[in-house]
């Protein structure tokens, strides 16, 4: 699998730094954000395939960030991080459009596998959009002849 553009969002600085290093050692590009607001600002200026997003954060929580990502960046996939018995919140995240969730502490290989699956889903959606746009742009030969005949009459 090629390198992914990942964003790791968590208010726990130690977890953020350690996990980012591990992901980078595996060849992925990693942006980090210590708050939901910082994550949304970075999304406006960086290409991100998958966000790994903590549910419980002070200020703007993970579910609020997820809703905003779905509205503003609908192709970006989100994997929710849950700890401290917040499985109910993770389920709500799935209902809101998260790709999946993992519990903390998480196995880095399992996290990367989920991120690769999420990135593959994003690429598949991008390909569907490209095909739809191409089909819209390509008209049938009959339509082309009609448009040329119409121009000749004017």
Can you give a write-up of this model?
- By secondary structure, the protein is an alpha/beta fold.
- It is built from six helices and five strands, in the order E-H-E-H-E-H-E-H-E-H-H.
- Strand 4, helix 4 (87-96) and strand 5 (100-103) form a beta-alpha-beta unit.
- The protein starts with a strand and ends with a helix.
Describe the structure in brief:
By secondary structure, the protein is an alpha/beta fold. The protein contains six helices and five strands.
Distance between the termini: 55 Å
Strand content: 15-25%
Runs in which pLDDT lies below 50 for 5 or more consecutive residues are none
Mean pLDDT: 86
Major beta sheet, strand line-up: 2-1-3-4-5
> What's the total count of β strands?
5
The 3D shape can be described as elongated
Which class of secondary structure composition applies to the elements?
alpha/beta
User: Helicity, in percent?
Assistant: 55-70%
Query: Rounded to an integer, what's the Rg over CA atoms?
Result: 20 Å
Number of helices: 6
Order of helices and strands: EHEHEHEHEHH
Largest sheet: 5 strands, parallel
Spell out the blueprint of helices and strands.
Layout: E1 5-9, H1 13-25, E2 29-33, H2 36-43, E3 50-54, H3 62-72, E4 77-82, H4 87-96, E5 100-103, H5 108-137, H6 141-153
Parallel strand pairs: 1-2, 1-3, 3-4, 4-5
Helix pairs in contact: 2-3, 3-4
Task: Kindly list the characteristics that best describe this protein.
154 residues, alpha/beta, 55% helix
């Amino acid at each position: 699998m090629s390198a992914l553009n990942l964003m790791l969002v968590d208010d726990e600085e130690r977890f953020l730094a350690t996990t980012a290093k591990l992901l980078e050692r595996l060849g992925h590009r990693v942006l980090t954000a210590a708050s939901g607001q910082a994550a949304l600002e970075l999304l406006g200026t960086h290409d991100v395939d998958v966000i790994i997003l903590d549910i419980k954060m002070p200020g703007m929580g993970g579910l609020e960030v997820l809703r905003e990502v779905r509205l503003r960046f609908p192709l970006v996939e989100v994997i929710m991080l849950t700890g401290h018995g917040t499985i109910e919140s993770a389920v709500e995240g799935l209902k809101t459009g998260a790709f999946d969730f993992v519990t903390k502490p998480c196995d880095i290989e399992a996290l990367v596998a989920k991120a690769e699956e999420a990135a593959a889903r994003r690429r598949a959606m991008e390909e569907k959009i490209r095909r739809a746009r191409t089909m819209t742009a390509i008209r049938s030969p009959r339509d082309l002849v009609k448009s040329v005949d119409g121009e000749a009459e004017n």
